[in-house]
Every structure is written in C-alpha cells, then in structure tokens.
Amino acid sequence: MAHQFEEPIRNEVGDGANSRIDEASKVERIREILFGSQMRDYDERFQRLEEHLAREASEVGAETQKRLDALERFIKGEVDSIKSRAALEHGERCNATDKLGRDLAETARTLDTQINNLNGQTAKSLGELRELLLEQSKMLSAEIKEKYDQMKLALEHEAAQIRDAMTGREALAEMLSEIALRLKNEFRVPGV
Known about the structure:
The chain has helices at 2-15, 17-183. By secondary structure, it is an all-alpha fold. The chain has one domain (2-183).
C-alpha cells in the first residue's frame, strides 16, 4: 500500500507545472458547474448595484455642491456684515477710549492735588500728635514716679511690720521652748 501512494507523488513531482495547470483547470470547471449560474447572477446584481451607487453618488455630489455654494454665499454675506459692524464698533471704541483717556488725565490731576493737600494735613496732624504724645508721656512719667514712690513707702512700711512680727515670733518661739522644757522639768536657769 505504501507503494501505491508513492507513485502519484512521483508523478506530481515529475510533471510539476503541467499537473498544476491541469488541476487548476479542473477546479475551474468544477466551480463553473457548481456555481456558474449563481456567479453570473451575482455579477449582474453587482453591476446594477455599482451603477445605482454611481448614480446616487453623482446626485449626492451635485446636491452637496449646491448646498456648499449656498453655504459659501451665506457665509460671505455674514462675514461682510460682521466686518461692517466691527468697523463701526472699532470707531465707537476709539472715541470711547479717547474720552476715557481724557477723563483719566483729569482724574489723575485731581488726585495729585488731593494727595498734596492730604500730605500737608497729615504732616500738620503728625506734628500735633507728637506734641500730644510728648505731653502725655511726661504726665505718665510723673504719675509713674509718684506711684513708684508711694509703693516704695508702702513696701518699706510692710517690710518693717513683717520684721517686727518676725521678732515677736522669735520671742514667742523662745518662750514656748522654755515652757516645753519646764513641763519636762528640763529647764535650768543659769546661775541657780
């Protein structure tokens, strides 16, 4: 059996190009027999469809061109209208800008005058304020010195009272010590 398969393979290899042409023509004939009428029908349908699509594409192109032309005319009209409005607005804005410049210059002059007046008033007010602060400072210094002297005297008086009280405490402590020693019978009077 292996021998039978080897023979056709050798023939195919030996004949090469001829066998391929024969096979291609055979396949083509089989295809024609099986699908020939359907393929011709499909070809006719595709041909009609292509013609129909070409007509519609041509119509769509013409309609699109018409609409584009109308749109172009409309846009040109709008652009011209916008240009004329822009020119008019530009003129109005130039006039408004000139007027605004004049108004700003006048305002700047007025502000300069007011600032100069304010500087003079401020300098005068600062001088008066300095004098007032100097007087207040002198009064406060005198008041602080007086309060300091009063507090110093009061503290010295309190310190003297505390010293007197401390002396009294020391005497009280000695006396209580003596009483404690006497209660314990440990107190001895020197020289007795």
